[in-house]
Amino acid sequence: MKIYTRTGDAGQTGVIGGRVDKDDARVEAYGTVDELNCFVGQAMSFLNGERDKDLLADLLQVQHELFDCGHDLAIHKPGIREFKVTADMAVNLETWIDKYDAETPDLTRFILPGGSAASAALHVCRTVCRRAERRVVTLARSQEINEEVRKYLNRLSDLFFTVARTANHREGIPDVEYVRSAEVFRNRK
Asked: Which residue numbers delimit the Cobalamin adenosyltransferase-like domain (predicted)?
């Protein structure tokens, strides 16, 4: 199989059910999800294979689920393929958020992204995830989508925030509070 096909040389690409311009809102949405998946892989490379086995396993599952999101977003004509992203996937993320949040100290103020290399990379994942979510919102204004993808991405950004804090905590690096932040979070534990 050849990697190059030359079919996109005129500025269009294939989606499930047709061809669209490469800057179509659908391509922007699933392309940003693909970018996020790359950043997740990079963040995983900064985690400790022994200490962070649970995080690595959960993030690997997230990578598979991001491919599912991309699949669903690439469906140009609803009904020609079944959606892969389901409501239970977002519920599963909530379970992980609660589990990892219980590991970290209480949070009352905004924090600065950073600390360990893993934490900084996971914060990048959080912000790219938010951008992907915005691209999906834009797409949904004009075209039909699987609404579960938007919910999943919304919850996923919360997971990235939580696991970024967990990565710092496991390395013994405290979160750095934003010095001009008021107390904005209540104890959720």
From this structure: 3-167
